[in-house]
TrEMBL record:
PANTHER family: ABC TRANSPORTER PERMEASE PROTEIN (PTHR43370:SF2), SUGAR ABC TRANSPORTER INTEGRAL MEMBRANE PROTEIN-RELATED (PTHR43370). The chain crosses the membrane at residues 6-23, 35-56, 62-84, 91-113, 133-160, 190-208, 214-236, 243-263, 269-286. GO terms for molecular function: transmembrane transporter activity. It comes from the Bacteria. It is a multi-pass membrane protein. Its main location: membrane. GO terms for cellular component: plasma membrane. This is Simple sugar transport system permease protein. The keyword Transmembrane helix applies.
Length: 308
């Protein structure tokens, strides 16, 4: 494989990984607070259709992304109310949220299927974008790609360098102890769930306005589940989660390029590669329970009530 083929593959890998980074880092923050939200797939689809519809109606992609964040955050608030205030089971509620998101997005977007929308523009850096090799590798992306790197830096800084991040991690490790020393556990968890919802909305909006600039029912194609797996794959560490997103982005891209390289493999087999890779990685990690338990929040998925 020569450089002329390698550069487009690397660029496509970065772009394919971007929605995974947003969704996975948002879920990472949620889980660090001790809440397991399996509704990422549904929130991504709601974000995708919201961004597309508002973008088409107003002609503003910025308003589209704002609408995606608002809609997904509203749905995450519903999840938070049910699980944190009403104490419903987090796993069952998250699965219901995914089904709700799939159905609602299909209903809202049924009149927009196949319609094109102006793609999120790439940033052109004068003097840098035209450089050989370095130009296309580093300066040929849209703003959301660079903002995903900023999100990684911000989440890492917040979790490990701020008092607020320490308080949030404490609620995920032992909410009863955090409550005993005066921490507002439920409020912190609400904020974490809302942040996760907002990032899932951005991830969905990126799908419908940048990665594939049109609305297609079910266009997330399981990326929400891959984002959930990435949190485990990265053992709840932001850097590992981001690197995992690029790894899975590369697998996704390679299955698209494989047939172009003359690899005689059925297309159905290639299409399942990202999901098969997810299963294989999780199986390998889970063979050693210590790897999982090393950073997993001790109270992940467990309900907490201040009066209990």
């Amino acid at each position: 494989m020569d450089l002329a083929h390698l550069i487009p593959i690397l660029v496509s890998t970065v772009i394919a990984a971007t929605p995974l980074i947003y969704a996975a880092l948002g879920e990472l923050v949620t889980e660090r607070a001790g809440v397991l939200n399996l509704g990422v797939e549904g929130m991504m689809l709601i974000g995708a259709v919201s961004a597309f519809v508002v973008g088409i109606k107003t002609g503003s992609l910025l308003l589209g992304f704002a609408a995606a964040m608002a809609a997904a955050t509203a749905v995450s608030l519903l999840f938070a109310f049910l699980t944190l205030s009403l104490q419903t089971n987090q796993v069952a509620t998250g699965l219901a949220l995914t089904l709700f998101g799939i159905g609602l997005s299909a209903f809202v977007g049924r009149g927009y299927a196949g319609m094109p929308i102006e793609r999120v523009p790439k940033l052109d850096v004068p003097g840098l974008s035209d450089l050989p090799v370095i130009g296309p590798l580093l300066f040929s992306y849209d703003a959301l790609v660079y903002l995903s790197l900023g999100l990684f830096a911000a989440v890492s800084w917040f979790l490990y360098r701020t008092h607020a991040g320490l308080r949030m991690r404490a609620t995920g490790e032992s909410p009863s102890v955090a409550h005993a020393i005066g921490e507002p556990v439920i409020a912190i968890r609400y904020l974490a769930v809302m942040f996760g919802g907002a990032m899932a909305g951005v991830a969905g909006a990126y799908l419908s306005t940048a990665l594939t600039p049109m609305w297609v029912e079910g266009m997330s194609s399981g990326r929400g589940w891959i984002a959930l797996a990435l949190v485990v794959f990265g053992t709840w560490k932001p850097l590992r989660v981001m690197l995992g997103a690029y790894l899975f982005g590369g697998v996704t891209v390679m299955q698209l390029y494989a047939q172009g390289f003359g690899i005689d493999v059925p297309s159905e087999f290639l299409s399942m590669l990202p999901y098969a890779a997810t299963i294989v990685v999780l199986v390998l990690i889970c063979r050693d329970p210590k790897t999982i338990l090393l950073n997993q929040p001790a109270s992940l998925g467990k309900s907490f009530h201040p009066d209990a």
